[in-house]
């Protein structure tokens, strides 16, 4: 419990630091979003209306420390402000409508690429120097090196425009209303997500493959592997129960980092396939200088990153008994 409490304290301080940085950056810039929003119509907007909009969006004329504590109170009470571009839509509503799609697309892609890459890396390490290892490892590195925009454009042109096997965009059929109680709607969502999911998955397999392969090669000459072989254990048991399990620890950390960044969405993939995830929201907020949305999304990304890192800490303790003994 002492270990867990120390980690929780660390993550709370990290979240507080990120929130403080998130508060300072927009206020360190000249002007404010409201003034920029009405820049072209300054002659037609009264100062009273500008002041009212500034107060609504949190840019009030008050001491900085008061603004800071008000900002922190709003964060922990779930009041993240109102979008400038999509006024009067709140930041919570805007991000809440996109976070599910990003988690589905990018989170599924990360988990699939981790599973596929780890299995391929296990066999590449076990058969290092073979034709399989000589083919699969460089091939996945080449695929990973190709820019995601090129992969997405090729996949879109080939399977959506050329062969017309899949739709070219959106999360579900245009003109239909989401019906989460209908199995047909889930099939439609999966059908529309097939191409962007494939692009997002393929681009990440190489990293997990090489990581698992290198970790496992470093363990294959350890004494406990030699002992397992000397006992006459089956090859599969030595691979998965002894070598692969101990090689998973660094990969679990890499997986947690990938899942933490998954909340930001696959910006390129979402743009090309017109997928309504957080990557698209972030791009629109940058173009519109929608500071409220940018602050909310960066804070959300930080919270997810810290959460999955904490989950990785817990999982590593479960997987490695030495850590449990060391903390007693």
From TrEMBL:
<dbReference type="GO" id="GO:0055085">
    <property type="term" value="P:transmembrane transport"/>
</dbReference>
<dbReference type="Pfam" id="PF19300">
    <property type="entry name" value="BPD_transp_1_N"/>
</dbReference>
<feature type="transmembrane region" description="Helical">
    <location>
        <begin position="298"/>
        <end position="319"/>
    </location>
</feature>
<comment type="similarity">
    <text>Belongs to the binding-protein-dependent transport system permease family.</text>
</comment>
<keyword id="KW-1003">Cell membrane</keyword>
<dbReference type="InterPro" id="IPR000515">
    <property type="entry name" value="MetI-like"/>
</dbReference>
<feature type="domain" description="ABC transmembrane type-1">
    <location>
        <begin position="99"/>
        <end position="312"/>
    </location>
</feature>
<feature type="transmembrane region" description="Helical">
    <location>
        <begin position="138"/>
        <end position="160"/>
    </location>
</feature>
<dbReference type="Pfam" id="PF00528">
    <property type="entry name" value="BPD_transp_1"/>
</dbReference>
<keyword id="KW-1133">Transmembrane helix</keyword>
<keyword id="KW-0812">Transmembrane</keyword>
<dbReference type="InterPro" id="IPR045621">
    <property type="entry name" value="BPD_transp_1_N"/>
</dbReference>
<feature type="transmembrane region" description="Helical">
    <location>
        <begin position="98"/>
        <end position="126"/>
    </location>
</feature>
<dbReference type="InterPro" id="IPR035906">
    <property type="entry name" value="MetI-like_sf"/>
</dbReference>
<feature type="transmembrane region" description="Helical">
    <location>
        <begin position="252"/>
        <end position="273"/>
    </location>
</feature>
<feature type="transmembrane region" description="Helical">
    <location>
        <begin position="189"/>
        <end position="210"/>
    </location>
</feature>
<dbReference type="GO" id="GO:0005886">
    <property type="term" value="C:plasma membrane"/>
</dbReference>
<keyword id="KW-0813">Transport</keyword>
<protein>
    <submittedName>
        <fullName>Peptide ABC transporter permease</fullName>
    </submittedName>
</protein>
<keyword id="KW-0472">Membrane</keyword>
């Amino acid at each position: 419990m002492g270990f867990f409490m120390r980690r929780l304290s660390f993550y709370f301080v990290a979240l507080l630091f990120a929130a403080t940085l998130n508060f300072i950056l927009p206020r360190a810039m000249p002007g404010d979003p409201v003034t920029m929003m009405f820049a072209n119509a300054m002659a037609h907007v009264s100062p009273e209306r500008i002041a009212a909009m500034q107060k609504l969006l949190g840019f009030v004329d008050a001491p900085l420390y008061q603004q800071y504590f008000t900002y922190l109170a709003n964060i922990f009470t779930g009041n993240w402000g109102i979008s400038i571009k999509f006024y009067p839509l709140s930041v919570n509503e805007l991000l809440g409508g996109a976070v599910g799609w990003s988690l589905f697309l990018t989170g599924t892609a990360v988990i699939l690429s981790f599973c596929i890459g780890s299995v391929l890396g296990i066999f590449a390490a076990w058969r290092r120097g073979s034709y399989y290892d000589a083919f699969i490892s460089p091939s996945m590195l080449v695929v990973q090196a190709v820019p995601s925009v090129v992969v997405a454009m090729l996949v879109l042109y080939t399977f959506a425009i050329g062969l017309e096997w899949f739709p070219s965009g959106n999360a579900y059929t245009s003109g239909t209303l989401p019906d989460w109680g209908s199995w047909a709607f889930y099939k439609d969502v999966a059908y529309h997500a097939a191409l962007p999911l494939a692009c997002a998955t393929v681009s990440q397999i190489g990293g997990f493959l090489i990581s698992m392969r290198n970790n496992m090669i470093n363990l294959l000459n350890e004494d406990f592997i030699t002992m397992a072989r000397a006992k006459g254990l089956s090859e599969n048991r030595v691979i998965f129960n002894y070598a692969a399990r101990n090689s998973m620890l660094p990969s679990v950390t890499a997986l947690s980092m990938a899942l933490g960044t998954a909340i930001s969405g696959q910006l390129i993939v979402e743009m090309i396939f017109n997928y309504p995830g957080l990557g698209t929201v972030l791009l629109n907020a940058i173009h519109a200088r929608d500071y409220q949305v940018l602050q909310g999304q960066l804070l959300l990304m930080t919270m997810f990153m810290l959460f999955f890192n904490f989950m990785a800490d817990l999982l590593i303790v479960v997987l490695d008994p030495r850590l449990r003994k060391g903390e007693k």
